[in-house]
Amino acid sequence: MYKAQDHWLSPNLNMEMSIASYGDYGRPLLFFPTAAADYLEHERFLMIDFLEPFIKAGKIRVFSIGGINREAWLNKNCHPKIKGMLQNGFNRYVAEEVVPYIWHKCQGNHGIITVGASLGAFHAANQLFRRPDLFAGTIAMSGGYDIRDYYESYGYHDENIYFNNPAEYLPHLWDDHYLPMLQNKRHIYILSGQGDYEKPDASRWLSATLSSKGIPHKLDLWGYDMPHDWPTWRAMMPHYVGAYL
What we know:
Layout: E1 3-10, E2 15-22, E3 27-31, H1 41-44, H2 47-56, E4 60-65, H3 80-106, E5 112-117, H4 119-130, E6 135-141, H5 159-162, H6 166-169, H7 178-183, E7 187-192, H8 200-212, E8 218-221, H9 230-244
Parallel strand pairs: 3-4, 3-5, 5-6, 6-7, 7-8
Antiparallel strand pairs: 1-2, 2-4
C-alpha cells in the first residue's frame, strides 16, 4: 500500500504541521486525531490496517493530519480566548492548506469526507458544518458537539468559541447559502457506541438538530458492548466505507 508523508510550516498556525496519506486513488477521507495525538495516530492504532482492503482497491484514499487540541482545548494553561483563536487558525490551515493539498494529490475535487472519533468527531463535524462548500460529508464517531465540555471556560465566551461550537451555532443556522448546501449532502453519518464511556445522547442531539434543519443524515447507535475506544471505531469505519462510500 502506497504511503506518503509531507511536512510544512503552516503560515496560519506558525507551527510545523504534518500529513500522511495512504493509497494513490479513491474518494479522499480526511482524518482528525482523537485527542492530543499526532498525524500518525490512526496508523499506530491499526485503523489504516483495517481499511487497507478498501485503500488497495482504490475505493478510498486516506489523509491524516494532526491538530491543535494539545495546545488549545486540552491545555489547562491556555486562556479560552487563545483556544478560540487557535481553533480559527486551525480552520484556516484545513481550508487553505490541507484541502488544496488533497485536491492537488487527487487531481481535482472528488468530495472530501471528514472523519474523526471522540474529539476528532467534533472537528470532523465542525469542519463540514462550517464549510459545506469544501466537504462532501462526515463520519463522526463517538463525538461530543459542545466544545465547552472539553475545557474550563471560567465564564469567558466570545465569537471564536461560539462559531466553532456546533451546540451553539448549529441550532441557529438558517443561512440561505450554507444551509442549502448541507441539505444536499448525502454522506453525513453520526455514530456512537452505547458501552463504557460513550455518550450516545450527544449523537442523538446532533441528529435531532440536523433533522430540524432538513439536513439528511444517518444516526447509528451501536450496542452496549461497544465502548469509547479504538475497537469500536475500527469496527465502524470498514462497515461504513464498505456499505456507504
